[in-house]
Specification:
By secondary structure, the protein is of the alpha/beta class. It has helices at 14-23, 39-43, 52-57, 69-79, 97-109, 123-128, 139-152, 162-193, 197-205, 212-223, 232-248, 254-268; strands at residues 5-8, 28-31, 47-48, 61-64, 88-91, 113-116, 119-120, 131-136, 153-159. Strands 3-2-1-4-5-6 form a 6-stranded parallel beta sheet. A 3-stranded mixed beta sheet has the order 7-8-9. Helix 5 packs antiparallel against helix 8. The longest helix has 32 residues, at 162-193. The termini are far apart. 42% of the residues are buried. The model has no long low-confidence stretch (mean pLDDT 97).
Length: 284
Amino acid sequence: MKPTLGFIGLGFMGAPMAMRLLNAGYPLHVYNRTKEKAGSLLHQGAVWKNSPAECAEHADIIFSMVTNDSALRDITTSIQTTLTAGKIHIDCSTVSPKLTAAIEKEYRTSGRSFLHSPVLGSIPQATEGTLLLFVGGSDEAFTGVESVLKILGSKIWRFSAAEHASNTKLIMNSFIAGMIATLSQAFAFAKNSGVDRTVLLDILQSSSLHSPMYQAKGKSILEGNFSPRFFLENLLKDTNLFRDAAQAYSTPSPIADTVKQMLEEAVSRKLGKEDYSAVIKILP
């Protein structure tokens, strides 16, 4: 018999991840601050719960996918009485390693299990189950959920501690931040100097500099399509998390420092709810 799952947080990534679990035949209980976002899942048979605590009470394995540290801390506070021994909480959010280390310690002390499993990928990968997963935490907890995690991702990397998975995710998102800054700079220069930007994308695709991200975001920029797949303000949040973590490990972060300034300027221009590629709009 399959374990009952809970899923807390049904945003851009959480909703398709939850749908994959539901379509795989797992009983699923869901919670989101806005119930409307659960509509498709409820139509397919998921069960609505009125709080994170209620969701955890009725599930054996509880997933969460939320925006920031504050939201994750609110969840752990809410579910502390209903997440009993033997249940496993898997958080997939991009949050600080300081927080995930603290949660892992708190859970272990009280006989509960916590894994941090941030993911790399966007909505298509979440829908297809081809996300890349970085899973930090105990081997015992991981063994109990490995088959479920494989429904969400095409490859899993294991880490002995939650904070190591958190740091890995921040490093990956620092690549995203640096790449969109580089692409924006190149596109602005090309436009102002009379170089065809479609030619640039063709050259990139034909060279060792090729990246699917450059192609996808480059084409979206040329089409003027900044519909969000990943909010610009969330990339700023992740860049700040990376900088804070780097400072804690006495690591300079000059590229992240520069990208932070660009993203802050974009947010000040009310671009925070657009796709992160909208950072190009701050360049003349």
